[in-house]
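ugh finaly. both done.
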Amino acid sequence: MNALKIILIFCLVSTLTFATNIPQKEKEALIALYNTTQGENWFNSWNLSEPVDTWYGVSVENGRVVALNLQFNNLKGNLPHEIGNLSEIQELNFFRNSITGSIPNTIKNLKKLKVLNIAFNKLNGEIPPSIGLLTKLERLELFMNEIQGTIPDEIGNLLNLKVLELYNNNITGVIPKSIGNLTELESFIVSSNNLTGKLPSSLSKLKKLKVLSVFDNKLIGLVPNSIGELKNLEELILSNNAFYGNIPTELTNLTKLKVLLLGNNAFKGELAALKDFFPNLNDFDVKNSEPVGYLVILDQDE
């Protein structure tokens, strides 16, 4: 009996020990993050001599790191390439810190990642095309940074994505047609960037979309008739661009609209009358600026 008790106690201790240990590579990745982002100055710092599962913001399950939530924690510096070693992680949340540099390309190794939030930081690199390998991703939030470059075509590989928020950056280029592949998408916000070109007609494939905001860019052209197919849309924000021409009559199909902002474009017609078609509106603006010269030139080139 005594021998049996000893064996049971040994098994219990072994199980508890396993639960609090993680692979060395994962521990090294966390320590690298600590070192590159001035961990000693975090609001909630880590005692590196204590078990990893006691570290603030670190969630461990079955001996693997599955979540890292360090929002509002005064991280300052770059994300280390070792972060790609957290291969079981499902959530990375660095919201509202002072992280600089680029998203490391090793992010492509985080195949189980569902949430990536590095919003409200000081990122200044580009969105790596390899982000398209994170096919389990449901939320990608990179707003309020200084991100440059374009939205990579590979974004269209994220078939489980529900939230894509890239607003308030320095992103250039066009909205890729591959955005139409994201049929689970509910929120697409790319306001306050330097995007050019037209609204891709492939947006009409996003039947679950509730929020579409491209406010304050350099987008041009006609609003596609197919926008009327987004029957679940609650917010449509096209203000402060260079759209022109008539608003498509199909827009009146969007009966769930609560926010409709079209101002500071070069639309034609009596736009104020639109309000009568949307009984649920609580925010409505169609005040237009005068068409500018370069719009005429672009129109002739089409």
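ok and the 2nd:
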Amino acid sequence: METSDTRKAETGCCGAPATPTDSGREVRRPVHREDVRDFYGRAAEAPQAELCCPTAYDPNELSHIPEAVLAISYGCGSPMAQAAPGPGETVVDLGAGGGIDCFIAARHVGPTGTVIGVDMTDEMLQKATAHAAPVAERLGYTVTSFRKGYLEAIPVDDGSADLVTSNCVVNLSTDKPRVFAEIHRVLRHGGRFVIADIVADRPVPEALRRDGELWGACIAGALTERDFCAAAEAAGFYGITLERDYLWKTVEGIRFYSTTFRGYRYDKAPDCLFQGQTAVYLGPGRSFTDDDGHTYLRGEVVEVCSDTAAKLQAVPYRGRFAVGDPDRPAEPCC
């Protein structure tokens, strides 16, 4: 791939003026949200094959979606298919672009569900909104809407979503901790995120991070897998898992992978009690430490509170623990 060192020096990232130094080398300014918005505004008007998702969608998922939507479907995975939204669920797709993942979700949630696509690019929103009507006609119902907004300020009510997805979008934000805080805010208790994104096998150096074209191409803004998980954990998510899908690109010796992440929102109940519940970790592995810092040795009986007992019986922990019934009067915990 062409890098910042090989591009012409007359212009900076995304067409922004570059500042020459005494040596004649350009100094790029930090990337801003407007750079990314302009980048994808152009991509909405003139499809760019190099940005298109290399993951093959199931043709059965696409039969109700216009071909024009597929031409501007930029991403690195298939989070909606992997998330498997259920009938009646409320789904929020961040960086919805032309709407492909929203339209896929609409078929899954059915006429009683809700799908909200969020994007900051006017050109993408216009495309998605224009295609919502033919999609609804083919499905026989309308459940999809699109809103203008930013990942750092999602225009969705608190605790209203069952599922938040994004397809190669979180890496485009310059404030990822805020993005995860917002995702946590809009999810309800028990809700989850499923995010396909690009991650790097080592921290991306500042020289690449200032390259707007590489940022728009989902390279310069990538976190490592460890940092991605840490940001989600800091926002309060539980049960974070990752699945590395494939090598996306190698730039200046750094490998960039498409990876799918999952995480869950679990709120501690105000009446959390010790009621005699117990949990036994079944494996695999000799031990397991949960996101609250509790360690369970395989096969060892551990007393847990009502809140933890409920969590261990839900996804993604379900099946890895045997949770016992209460056998004594309740007493306050926490």
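summary for the 2nd one i guess: The domain at 33-264 is CATH 3.40.50.150 (Rossmann fold).
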